Amino acid sequence: MKCPPALPMETERLAALAEYGLGSDRPLPSLDVVVRIAAHMFEVPVAAVNMVGDDHVFFAAATGFAGDGVDMSRDASFCAHAILQDGVMVVPDATLDDRFHDNPLVTGDTQVRFYAGVPLLSAGGHALGALCVIDTKAHHDFSADDRERLRELARMAADRMELRRVELFIERDRRPFAEPERRSPTAMIRFDEHGTILDWNDAAAMLYGYAVADGPDLTLELLAPERDRAGLRDLIARAVAAGSVDGMTMPPEVHGLRRDGTEFLLGFSLFCWRENGVLTFNAHLQDLSALRDEKDALKRLAGADVLTGVANRISFYRNAEAALTCPLGAAVVILDLDGFKDVNDTLGHAVGDGILCDVARRLTALARPDDTVARIGADEFALLLRGVTDTADARRFADAAAAAIAEPMVVGGFDVRVTACCGVAVAPQHAQEALSLIGNADLALSRAKHNGPGQAFVFVAALRMEAVARRVYNIELHRAVSDGEFVLFYQPQVDFADGSLTGAEALIRWRHPQRGLLSPAAFLPALERGPLAPTVGAWILDEACEQAAFWRRNGAPGFRMGVNLFGAQFRVGNIVDEVIAVLDRHGLPPQALELEVTENIVLDDDAVLDSLQRLHEYGVGIAFDDFGTGYASISLLRRYPLSRIKIDRSFVQGMVQSGRDASLVRALVDMARSFDLRTIAEGVETVPQCDGLRQLGCDEGQGYLFGVPMPAREFGERFDIGLGDEWVGWNVNRA
Ligand code: C2E
Ligand code: CA
Ligand code: CA
């Protein structure tokens, strides 16, 4: 028997393998379907995804495998040979192969004769194991096509493994404090629902007189004197019951207990968040008694941002007012971090907090002694620059601040790059009074953000005019609602299997009396942000359902209507009752309606989840719109009650030219199928795109190839529905 030689980069390969968290007792269930397909496709009794460890191999998934007693040593493993080469390793008859004829798997009870395996590569190109098919009969007819199909399945397996690695990575990172938090002067403790300490930073350990490494052995109770413990337990129990600490009354006085038995008066603020169903707490602590003058301490606490230690919003306003009463003047720079929410969502709150602390530190390093650095919003910072009255000088400060923020940071082991937009206003030139100075800097900031990430903008009077114009625009939107200027257009959706029309997506348009037909890009952002969204959303739902009912009665009995929802529709009123009432009103079965939601709407909101769940149970379709463009999509697939995903048009448009986009679409379709979801591709414009999608197994399509969004009348004419004649059906091939 020939033992496989070790690979040249074996240490690195094993390190890569470890990142997937797999083991003989930790298989990967998402691979089960892959091995089942493989066994079925090649008509063999056994298929497996086999990982090659240090001296043993183990299954990440297997089907038809007899179980115990099989030699799983690396020396005996066929897969250990397969990972030495790039392509598909085929052994038509092991008894005739000098590497394997005396192998215990061949001569023993397992009686392996045929083997075909493809290496599975990590993102970094290390062969971690192999997808293989095995038979006790020889196969001399394993063709080039078969090899290609096996390779195809291996790609699918590798995609799923990659998914697992990313999830694990995010999961692991959430736990410990990130580096800036670890070094932060603010004492922080993270603990779980039982008061067990998960992590604390240097300042917290020092506050209590312990070493940082002692943290995981301690509980919160051990850090409080006997008499305060019941109160503490009660506090945590109430938070766990409510799922939040918002609005909770805190014990009036809490003490800390040091390791040496001494006590101190403890000031603290508490945050919590839910992760995988479990509540995790973060407490920021201060030794109040250590501050000589308690009144002074309270004053400082009130004026400081707890996370970063810089001034908070209130003290920033106060300082700005004070600065403007003196004749020297001042400038205000407001900074907003770009894409911070995404960072928080993908890398976790610990990293997010770490970034905020680092930004605060950088701005403080830049400020002069009399300036004020403040955190005035979740990811908004502000600088008050005393005596700076020249716009060019203020702009230079803003640019320096943005540049300081843009320097690379390492937070919690991640290399992160953050950019910020800045808005600048100076007094007395732009405003004489603090509130309007800050308001003007804010308008400048909005313009900067509008221009793109990393932009700075100095206030000009026109911005005020535009703000007024926006207000007028909002008045116009009100008129549009009351005068019925909104209309719905309908875009066909088509079944790839037979080219038949399955339904339509309703898309809003505004027939503006002066500006003509406006598409959503021109007014939706204002509408979505304003108070009218729920009203307009309710109208869209009603109008679209009425149209669907009409078409279903007049020739298209199976017609399904897709309706886009606004986030506000989940926050105002009860969307579940509203949908059910609309369906009843028009005599529609729930399957006739499909609600389209985007990641922005559904992200991590339990109330939304609950509503969607109930609608889904009721039978209404839920489509995940613009799929593939966001960050959290994959985890949402698992948690959300969806019936199908809409593959975003950006992928469809690239798929013919770019192999990358094509394999992405394949992965999306495949992933959807493994979650039992149907797929529809958006933005199908050409026949090659249509053919490609059909081949990849996508169920339906929507796009200019089948029809642009059009008024109901035109839609009816085009597809022979609602015109009195009997519906003869419609076929893509006739388009
Ligand atoms: P969406 O939901 O992704 O809608 C698809 C958009 O892609 C539509 O733009 C449609 O006209 C366009 N489109 C369709 N096929 C093709 C194609 O083959 N090629 C290209 N290049 N584009 C195609 P539209 O109508 O301008 O809508 C834009 C967005 O506005 C929609 O994106 C949706 O997010 C929002 N929206 C539109 N109508 C409504 C509505 O009634 N309610 C809500 N809440 N949102 C709406
Ligand atoms: Ca949509
Ligand atoms: Ca879309």
Automatic annotation (TrEMBL):
Lineage: superkingdom: Bacteria
Occurrences of domain GGDEF (ranges): 328-461
Top-level taxonomy: Bacteria, Pseudomonadati, Pseudomonadota, Betaproteobacteria, Burkholderiales
Domain called PAS: residue spans: 173-243
Annotated PROSITE patterns: EAL (PS50883), GGDEF (PS50887), PAS (PS50112)
UniProt cross-references to InterPro entries, sorted A to Z: Biofilm_reg_signaling, EAL_dom, EAL_sf, GAF, GAF-like_dom_sf, GGDEF_dom, Nucleotide_cyclase, PAS
Residue span(s) of domain EAL: 470-723
Protein name: PAS domain S-box-containing protein/diguanylate cyclase (GGDEF) domain-containing protein
Native species: Paraburkholderia caballeronis
